[in-house]
Amino acid sequence: MSHQALIAILLLSPFVGFLLNGLRYRSQNYVLAGSIATGAVFVSFICSVMLMMDLIAAPADQRRLTANFFEWIAVGGFKVNAGFVVDQISSIMILIITGVGSLIHLFSIGYMHHDKGVTKYFAYLNLFVFNMLILVLGDSLLTMFVGWEGVGLCSYLLIGFWFSDAAKAAAGMKAFITNRVGDAAFIIGMFILFFSFGTLNMYELNALAPTTVEASWLGAATLGTLMLFIGATGKSAQVPLYVWLPDAMAGPTPVSALIHAATMVTAGVYMIVRLNPMFVAAPNTMMIVAIVGAITAVMAATIGLTQYDIKKILAYSTVSQLGYMFLAVGVGAFGAGMMHLMTHAFFKALMFLGSGSVIHAMEGEQDTRLMGGLKKYLPITHFTFLMGWLAIIGFPLFSGFFSKDEILWQSFASPRGSVFLWVAGAIGATLTAFYMTRLMALTFWGKSRVPKEVHPHESPVIMTIPLIVLAILSVVGGFIGVPHLIGEYLGHIPNYWAEWLAPVIKTLPEAAAPHTATQEWALMTTSVTLALISAFVAYRIYTSGKGTNEAIAKAFGPVYNVVNNKYFVDEAYFGGIINPLVKQSQNLWMYIDVNFIDKTTHVISDMTKGAGSLARSFQTGNMQQYAMYIGLGVVVVLTFVLMR
Amino acid sequence: MPETNILTTIGLEHYLVLSAVLFSMGMAGVLLRRNLIVLLMSIELMLNAVNISFVAFSKFNNNIEGQIMVFFVMTIAAAEAAVGLALAVSIFKRFKEVNIRFFEHLKG
Amino acid sequence: MTDAILFWFLALVTVCAGLSVILMSNPIYSALSLAMTMVGVSALFVTLGAYFIAGVQLIVYAGAVMVLFVMVLMLFDLKHEIQAFTRGKITGAIKIASVGILAGLVVGAITLGTKAIEAAKATEAVAGKTYDNNTMSLAQNLFLQNVFGFEALGVLLLVIAVGTVALSRSRGGTHARD
Amino acid sequence: MMNMGTTPFEITINVIKTILVFLMMVQLVPILVWVERRGSAFIQNRFGPNRIGPLGLLQLLADAVKFLTKEDFVPDKGNKYLFYAAPIFALIPASIAYMAIPMSTPLIVGDSKFLIQGFEVNVGIVFILGVSSLAAYTILMAGWGSGSKFALMGAMRAAAQIVSYELALGLSIVGVIMTYGTFNLSDMIAAQQGALTFTGFGSTFTAHFLPNWGIFYQPLGALIFFASAFAESNRLPFDLAEGEAELVAGFHTEYGGFKMLMFFIGEYGHMMIASGLFATFFLGGYNIPYTTVQGVHDWLMTTFGLSVDGANIANTVVHFLMYNVKFLILLWIFIHVRWTLPRFRYDQLMDLGWKTMLPWALANTILTSIVIFAASQFAF
Question: What is the ipTM for the molecules in this complex?
Answer without folding.
Answer: 0.70
